[in-house]
Amino acid sequence: MTDIENDWGPFDTPFDALGGEDKVRSIVDRFYDIVDSDAPVLRAMLPKDDSVSRDKLFAYLVEWTGGPELYTPERGHPRMRMRHAPFEIGPDEIETWLRCFSQSLNENGVEGDIRDFLNTRITALAHHMQNTP
Fold first, then answer.
1. Engineering a disulfide at 15: which of 27, 66, 77, 122 sits with its beta carbon 3.0 to 4.6 angstroms away?
2. What are the φ/ψ torsions at residue 6 (nearest 5 degrees)?
3. Model confidence over 40-90: pLDDT tens digits?
4. Count of CA atoms in the C-beta half-sphere (13 A) of 76
5. CA-to-CA separations, 119 to 7, 76, 86, 105, in angstroms, rounded
6. What is the pLDDT of residues 88-120, one digit of tens each?
7. How many whole angstroms separate alpha carbon 125 and alpha carbon 3?
8. HSE on the CB side for 60, CA within 13 Å?
9. Of 54, 48, 47, which is closest to residue 27 (Cα–Cα)?
10. Do 30 and 105 contact (CB within 8 A), yes or no?
11. DSSP output for 14-37
12. For residue 4, what pLDDT is reported?
């Protein structure tokens, strides 16, 4: 830890503030479980076996939050808009995705500075994915 306060609290990286790979894996797995049960529109965008999707989001979030580089060496630059271009993503899909992600963060006990940081950054990223009115 560091004495300098960041937007995510007194940790070197958001990854550290979250608690590392185990916590990120838990957030991702719970997110997909919620999508499976409560978000049929999002679920329809995923392959029947969503294990690869889970692994991609896990690797992306680990790296994006300042953890080990797990995504880029395997898949290159994230180019998130391009990768999501085949899917119709409008305001309803964005809000559903954010609701599912927020519920996963709630159930994983993510709160305080790191929660505020994630809410701000993930919300901006989700809205950047919009490609339909």
1. 66
2. -105, 175
3. 999 999 999 999 999 999 999 999 999 999 988 788 787 777 788 788 999
4. 4
5. 12, 25, 25, 10
6. 999 999 999 999 999 999 999 999 999 999 999
7. 29
8. 17
9. 54
10. no
11. HHHHHTSHHHHHHHHHHHHHHHHH
12. 54
Strand partners, 9: 6
* CA–CA dist 43, 46 (Å, integer): 5
Which pLDDT value is given to residue 2? 47
| Torsion sign (Cα): 16, 18, 19, 20 | negative
Query: What CATH number is attached to the domain comprising 101?
Result: 1.10.490.10
Residue 25 placed within a domain: yes
Compute the mean pLDDT over every residue in the chain, rounded to the nearest whole number.
92
Number of domains in the chain: 1
Cα dist from 55 to 3, 24, 35, 91, 127, whole Å: 33, 11, 15, 25, 22
